[in-house]
Amino acid sequence: MQRSMTTQATEVAGMIIILPIDLGVLLSCHFRPLCHCFYLHSTFLEKKKSKTRVQDALYRTLDEFCGKAWTYGSMFKFNFELDEAEVDNEFGGTASSFLDGCPINVEAGPSRPRAVMPCHTVSLDQLLDRLPDKISYSPIAIPGSRSLLRRDLFDARFQLASEHNTAPHSDPVNGASTESDLPPEAGGENQGEGVIDVHSDLIPGFYEGGLKTWEGGVDLVEVLSEVKDIADWIRGSSILEVGCGTSLPTSFLLGRILSTPGSSSSRTTFRLQDYNLSVLSLVTLPNLLLAALPHIPPDSLLPAEQVEDVEQVLPDLDASGELVISPELKQGFKMLLQKCHVDLLFDYGAWSGLVENLKSAPQQRFDLILTSETIYSEDSVDDLMDVLRIGSTGTASREEHGDKQHTAVELADSIADLSVRDRWDLLPLREQSSAVILVGAKVLYFGVGGGLQAFLDAVKANGGWYETIKGWTAGVGRKVVRVGW
Would you say the pTM of this structure is higher than 0.85? Predict the structure, then answer.
């Protein structure tokens, strides 16, 4: 049956455009052709008209459709509103680059059918070997907490371009360097690195946006910073960050536990997964290293042959700077991890492969699972849910765990003051009977089809439950939610 649709006429640069008002069509369309259609027609009819007038007319129409004004630069790319001084062009364009900022793809994430794609492990030593001699960094403000240091995006891209131009001979079949002892990324390692160098948010099957710092990661850090005595809360537990990218949540937790070593000899394990090996080496590990920087012995910050006063080389943690990555610094980082009983584990590849890896070790259950900005594609939701469910329960069967948990969830709902969900941040993770799973996401991802409510409905349909921990309404709405099975 053909769906009825009303239309509305709007004037753009002297031209009458008939637009559909059907909201479902509006939100699911690919906006780039629409934007360029407006721009090209207005330029053709009246060259003296500015691009701003075209944009304003489009936004007035969208405002009538949706009941709210959507800000420039946050609509089509997954951008968010940080201070411009902190952005460094990392989070996308401004109003002046509106038309050029539209994404070039509609779909995102692993494609269907749900074929199992590999997920590989890589050691800390292997990633340390891939670090450059020097990195530049900048602080990013965290509401209610001290700033976090992160590697500059331009610096990571520069390293990527340099390595691409000077790379050793590559295997023509899968694109992997013949001198590498690591399995290639999906699509071939060099091929994946090539598209990362393109200024795109993501390219399905090759690059899933891990180089950029996304809003949901900052939101997770804000929520975690509100946990009292968080170092003791996570000590001795096992933590997984799925789709880690710049790994701000794990970096925050690592910095806290390194700052208060404690007397317990039980090990704290952080496991980080991203689609791209390049992301792990370019931003994930550098940001973890920066988080540990204040706690590494100062003499490790200097190469052995230098005799400068170590007080002169201590970095300012509230300002941008450069860090020389010497063998002494790498060794100091590893010794600090060992002293604080911390293990760092890394995986790269598809979630379907990670699911298979988790199934092969059913005895392992993570106490805390973090993921942010990973639900933008409905196609990849099932694999993500499998990672969250199996990682938190150690159970491979949805039916087995869903039936067992259904009664317990209803009981918890009826006894709010005793609910484990209401007290997720009070008991240490190692003492809790069920895992804490926190998801940071936007309410809706324009142009790519994903959204928070659709994800939560899928969780519930698969025997899970959810609750909202915190929400933000400025710009595109965002939430941190807790889910469980």
Answer: no
